[in-house]
Write the structure tokens for this entry.
Amino acid sequence: MDELEYIFNRRSIRKFTDRKIDDALIGKLLEAAMYAPSAVNSQPWHFVVVDNRKMMDRIMEIHPYAAMFRTASHGIVVCGDEQLQHGDGYWVVDCGAATQTLLLAAQTMGIGSCWVGIHPRKERKEAFSRLLELPPHVNPFALVALGYPAETKPRPARFKPERVKRNTWNQPYFSR
Ligand SMILES: Cc1cc2nc3c(=O)[nH]c(=O)nc-3n(C[C@H](O)[C@H](O)[C@H](O)COP(=O)(O)O)c2cc1C
């Protein structure tokens, strides 16, 4: 398989089979996420693995778009540490890189995933901070739902050549 197929074929999966993901594979996914780039290599992240039914039910109560936790095997909350970040606000960017790395790593293992947004919504951040008992300097950034896919989705057309410029704004990169 062409390596880029993992990128092109990744879709948000919201229906999962009842097969649980092995702890060892969750470990591999987290290892991959921690290889994401970060400003000055500060790696200002923490990960909270959610693997029990009660917590997943609570997640569905506090998040309006997290119904995939009815069938998800695991959730991973990517969190950013203000005390470890390179400078003000960098934890957001670094956590974005870690989250996307996690999604792509899952795709290479045949594991379905969905990014469930927390940051920048204040009410979601507060609710997840409470649920996960996070210290004040640690921000919940995104929740990733994981499981073996019980749905398939086609690859949509997304490449927009007109969004690419050459050197300056008024020069298209791709000529028609
Ligand atoms: C910042 C962010 C927040 C998102 N929040 C949610 C969410 O709360 N619930 C959900 O089901 N999907 C969520 N998604 C997934 C998007 O809906 C999905 O990535 C988008 O529709 C593109 O589809 P694809 O991932 O299948 O390519 C989120 C994605 C991002 C990047």
Remarks:
- Residues 118 and 124 are 5 Å apart (CA to CA).
- Helices lie at 4-9, 23-33, 53-62, 90-108, 122-132.
- The mean pLDDT is 97.
